[in-house]
Amino acid sequence: MPRDVRHLAKLLPDGVRSLLITLEYDQSRMKGPPFSVAEREVRTLFEPSFQVETLSVFDALAESPRFRARGLEALSERIYRLQRCARTP
To answer: pTM above the 0.85 mark?
Structure first.
């Protein structure tokens, strides 16, 4: 995954904005996919090449009964805005 993020940073021009949507849950309760991605991991992977801003966090378990059936007791969906930082010469 770090290699993919580095490749994305090389491809995108400075200032470009994009969205990233992740799910967070206790992986000991359910094996992915989809896999859990914590905010700390998002920030570690994308900063400093991108400015990372959390736009929304909500409880997605109520809308996804199939995840409750797979053993989850909590499921959060996070939406991030990523903006490519200016490269230093």
So the answer is: yes
